[in-house]
Structures are given as C-alpha cells and as structure tokens.
Amino acid sequence: MTVRGADKLIKQLNRLPLQARSGIGTALAGSVVMLDAYAKQKIQGGARSGRVYRRRSISHQASAPGEFPKTDTGQLVASLFFRVAADKLSAFFGTKLAYGRYLEFGTSRMQARPWLRPTLRANRDAITLRIRNAVNEALKRG
C-alpha cells in the first residue's frame, strides 16, 4: 500500500542532507514497529465469531468475514516483517506469504479477513503526527 503524494515529498526530502533525514528514518522505524505490534496483537488476540472446526484433535474457531484473521498455525504472525529503506524516506511492513494477500482481499472461495488496511487505518493519525514532526525537524535542520 502506498501513500498518495509520497513520491513528490520524497523527491523534495532527497534534497536534504543525509544527516537531516535520520530523524525521518527513526520516525518511520517507530511507525512500522507500531504497525507490526498492532497487527500481531489483533491477529493473536480477541474473540472470533466464525465457524468452529477441528483439525486432528484440536478445535479452532475461525474468524468471520471482515474480522482480523484468527491465528491457527501462527505462520502469518511469524512472517510479518518491516524495514526502513537505506534512503530513510520509505518503509515497508507486510508479509511475503501469498495467503496474507488472500486474507486481506479474499478469493473466489473465501471472503476477506482484512488485517493490513485496518492496521494502517487504526494507526494513521499517530504515524502522520510522528512523521510530520520528523519532517518539520529535518526541514529546520536542513
């Protein structure tokens, strides 16, 4: 997921000395750590209202369509990762697992159990404030 208008801002910020950009990188790193913690907490915690099924001798209650996916094997949570780019002006948070996308958007056989977009929406204001403050500080120093 990309933020609209980010390319233009990144071009302007690239003109700043690398030293002035370090605070932005720190703000981005803090933001993706926050996203990671939030997503893991939502996927692993809380009640679900989906169907109950058994795999071997273990009973599991799935998430219902529209809910955060419920941990079953733990692979999604274990696969979540984040990084801040070397330029310190962009960051990534997500998973390389194909079914992370299937959960987010659904398939022809399964309704969506979004986890990435709700995580970003829930943390948008805090991330915006964190990055805005870092950009303002970088512009003062730059």
- Give the overall pLDDT as a whole number: 88
Shape: elongated
Structural class by helix and strand composition: mainly alpha
Q: Ends: how far apart?
A: 29 Å
Q: Give the helices and strands as they follow along the chain.
A: HHEEHEEHH
- Residues in β-strands, percent: 5-15%
Side by side, the strands of the main sheet go 1-2
- Count of DSSP strands: 4
Rg computed from alpha carbons, rounded to a whole number of angstroms: 18 Å
Percent of residues in helices comes to 40-55%
Quick synopsis:
With 142 residues, the chain is mainly α.
Task: Characterize the structure shown.
- The chain is mostly helical and 142 residues long.
- It has five helices and four strands, in the order H-H-E-E-H-E-E-H-H.
- It has helices at 6-14, 18-44, 75-79, 98-105, 116-141, and strands at residues 52-55, 58-61, 81-84, 91-94.
- The strands form two sheets. Strands 1-2 form a two-stranded antiparallel ribbon.
- A hairpin with a 2-residue loop joins strand 1 and strand 2.
- Helix 2 (18-44) packs antiparallel against helix 5.
- The longest helix is centred in the first third of the chain and has 27 residues, at 18-44.
